[in-house]
Amino acid sequence: MKEPTLNPESGFLRLRVDLSYDGTNFAGWAKQPDQRTLQAEIEKALAVLTQSQLATIVAGRTDAGVHAEHQVIHVDIPEKIDISNFAFRLNQLLDEDIRIKSVVYAPANFHARFTASARTYRYKIIDGARITPPLDRHDSAEWFRELDIDLMNQASSLVLGEHDFFAFCKFREGGTTIRNLLQFEWVRDEKGYAVATIKAESFRYNMVRNLVGAAVCVGEKRFEPEWMEKTLKDKVRIPDSYVFPAKGLSLIKVDYPSESEYLTRYNYYMSSTASEEPES
């Protein structure tokens, strides 16, 4: 694996690209043989505009079926390339389920992944056996039972902070499961859907959807709120059947510190367990 760098090679300039996408018909972010992926589609469009094979770096890889209202990537392009109307030109090449929101020259020491300070996700559930409106079918999951939001918030608050989230991560060889969960709260939106906002510096694979599934177990009164905290502390991995579907999950924000802190943030990631790939 190529060592991540803060600054582009001589003759190249770094771009920050902000984008959104409907993940329904993608096999996730990362390129895979014979699969339609977000990275492959974006790099193909970049190759047409720049006449170069370029590699993108993403703030957080999203899994198959996961959406993004606001994702961030960087890409190093030959400095001779004119980026006037670059976002518009990329959108002309991309299918409508990917939209480039902006393209700008990145500040010094910017790295889409390793200078990010947090990622925020939203999970949306249509509970109580209600019919899902057709326009909501892609970014919402359905649940038969009515959920108690107060109980879910009680449970979710018990797992905030820095912990070993082994119990809520799908197993992958190597790496740490210690993460700092900054926000995990539930509300009823204007349509009456149960909506979670979940924020952390970074996430392990399937961590968000595992946490949502566990909170739902509490919300339908299968377990008391303290069960989530006990599961966390006991490091008893919850069953795969608790993992909620990808389609209800959307990345809604990537936070970055002030430009003066980019180098500090990068060094923190590279010298700690947080350097692992952030994932949904």
TrEMBL record:
GO molecular function, one term: tRNA pseudouridine(38-40) synthase activity
Catalytic site: D63 (nucleophile)
Pfam families in the cross-refs: PseudoU_synth_1
Catalytic reactions on record: uridine(38/39/40) in tRNA = pseudouridine(38/39/40) in tRNA
GO BP of this protein: tRNA pseudouridine synthesis
Keyword GTP-binding among UniProt keywords: no
Residues given in the record as substrate binding sites: Y121
Assigned keywords, A-Z: Isomerase, tRNA processing
EC number, as in UniProt: 5.4.99.12
Transmembrane stretches, start-end: none
Residue span(s) of domain Pseudouridine synthase I TruA alpha/beta: 20-114, 157-257
InterPro entries in alphabetical order: PsdUridine_synth_cat_dom_sf, PsdUridine_synth_TruA, PsdUridine_synth_TruA_a/b_dom, PsdUridine_synth_TruA_C, TruA/RsuA/RluB/E/F_N
Family statement drawn from the similarity comment of this UniProt entry: Belongs to the tRNA pseudouridine synthase TruA family.
Protein name: tRNA pseudouridine synthase
Organism the protein comes from: Halteria grandinella
Phylogenetic classification of the source organism: Eukaryota, Sar, Alveolata, Ciliophora, Intramacronucleata
